[in-house]
Amino acid sequence: MTANLTARQQRALDMADAAPADATDDNLDALLELTRHDDSAVRADAAQGVEMVAKEHPDLVADRLPDVIGLLHNPSVDVRTFGQDVVGILGSERPGLLAGTTAVRHLAQGLTDENEFVRAGAATRLGIVGEAAPDLLSDAAVLDALVAKAEGDTYTEARAQAVESLEAAANADPSLIDDRTVERLRTVIERDDVGGRVETAVEGIETAWRNRAASAGDGAGTEFCPACGAELDADPVPNFCRNCGQEL
């Protein structure tokens, strides 16, 4: 490391690289401070260190959630990317730590980042979070942002990752994805660059709906639409799904 660092800061970087399981509160604080360093290489190394610590001690990192969210808006592309990794780790390993916070919404803001790799990364991590903890993706604004990304990003991989993340969320909780969302995704299928992947994802969503409908009933009489998987209204009249219009 060529930048001038204090002994405390250097120890934190060394620890994150060699033994992240041994990280202390002070080590993590030093790493987070270094993500705002003047040297871009130091910022990137520090953010990677935070990611390594998150893998070993998600609870420790979650205690600094405002700082983690700050990584998502760092001027450095590398720091933003590692910040996405950290939120993805917390969302998949300790989803309860993100419940009731704005972390996932901030992660979704990466879908409009100026950097195409950050946009694709945000889509990927949202899928990881949604698969592990679909409740964290229940925010309509987050889901709509993923659909919009699938429809119109200039970067092929960002579009493909967005629709695959929607499929992952649907597999975890089919009720998250409604019929209108699928219709929007169908308009993307005609595009040669991502059409095949989108079609596969749409088929996966519809399969998740059918599987949920086939296993309908939770012991309390709950039923689901065979077309879109949405929970049906207890009132049998009118006899159609209020979500997609399917006649029952």
Question: What is the overall shape?
Answer: elongated
Q: Which class of secondary structure composition applies to the elements?
A: mainly alpha
CATH topology of the domain at 7-171: Leucine-rich Repeat Variant
- Tell me which CATH architecture of the domain at 7-171 applies here: Alpha Horseshoe
Provide a short characterization of the protein structure.
This protein has 248 residues and is mainly alpha-helical.
List the topology elements:
Elements: H1 7-18, H2 25-34, H3 40-56, H4 58-62, H5 65-71, H6 77-93, H7 103-109, H8 116-132, H9 140-152, H10 156-172, H11 179-186, H12 195-214
Description:
This is HEAT repeat domain-containing protein. The chain is mainly α and 248 residues long. It has a domain at 7-171: Leucine-rich Repeat Variant. Helices cover 60% and strands 0% of the residues. It has 12 helices and no strands. It has helices spanning 7-18, 25-34, 40-56, 58-62, 65-71, 77-93, 103-109, 116-132, 140-152, 156-172, 179-186, 195-214. It is elongated. The model has no long low-confidence stretch (mean pLDDT 88).
